[in-house]
Amino acid sequence: MVFLAINYHYIDDEKKYERGIYPVSVKRFQEQLEKLGKFFTFVGQKDVLDALAWGKKLPENCCVVTFDDGLKSQYEQALPILNKMGIPAIFFINGLPYLESKALFVHKVHWARSKMSPAEFLGEVSHLYTLFTGEPFNLGSFINMSEEQLRSFYPYDHLDETRIKIFLNKSTLDLALREQIINTIFKSIVKEEKEFCDNFYMTNKQVLELYKNGSIGWHGYAHKPVTLLSDSAMQTELKSASRVLSYITGDSKAAANSVSFPHTIPVSLKIAQVAGSVGMKFGFTMEKAFNTSLLHPLLFSRLDANDIPGGKAPLFSMEDNGIKILDKKLNICRREYFEEGT
Ligand SMILES: [Zn+2]
What we know:
Radius of gyration: 20 Å
Organism: Candidatus Giovannonibacteria bacterium RIFCSPHIGHO2_02_43_16
Mean pLDDT: 91
Subcellular location: Secreted
Strand content: 5-15%
Order of helices and strands: EHEHEHEHHHHHHHHHEHHEHEEEE
GO molecular function, one term: hydrolase activity, acting on carbon-nitrogen (but not peptide) bonds
Bound molecules: zinc ion
GO cellular component, one term: extracellular region
Number of strands: 10
Keywords: Signal
């Protein structure tokens, strides 16, 4: 069997933002689904849960369509296409926008970068770093990587953009200081964070509708990089799904069965253990591979929209005689997690 999981973020006009945010257009989205539909049978959350719970067979070649971050553009632009084509999907939401009317760090960064040039953005970061720490700012001291290594992380971005992303997501910069800098920049652009959230994320009503359809999953309370967290912080990120969903749906028994782990490189068995302990039945990492079995269902691999046919840099194509791998970054099957032994 081949069980392919694909993932989308922003669905919108591809030229809507000058930089920083790179949506997939409705047209591209629909074309990708049409292409995939010739080879794969689309399955939804219930199909996967039934397969795991009582062995209901999934189609030989099947595909699940997923969306991360609970963005309103997914509901407004992608859902009508999915409904028209009769394709199920899973939308993974976070807690912070719903319980605290706060935007996620990752989106504050996207938004700021869409409004400022890389030079302006870095200038502002540098200024605030010095203001908050009293130290001069030296980007190079936080990033110890060759150009080739930098490109391997974000192959679709300009190198300056990549340096900024690495600095914000993977450098040794203190997490609290990082948030303080980004919050300050975000506040200078967006006056009302609640209003921003209302426009940017799905409303409670929209989430409720998707929840009733069995199409909601969990993406962490505050979108923290789970693999880098302590065990207790990891648990807090993952177990708050029922609290948030109960708040949104008014149903005290509301819960999530599936999770999409934010920033899961490297993948670890630990996140699967913690997710399983808080009731998640299956989950997705960012490992670029096809799933060829339902073993280790909390560590299903998943491809980005850019990686699939019709995307910016497809890693495979679909031929009459099967799937053809176009890029060695894509593995034909997942790592053997059970041999990791941790
Ligand atoms: Zn995310």
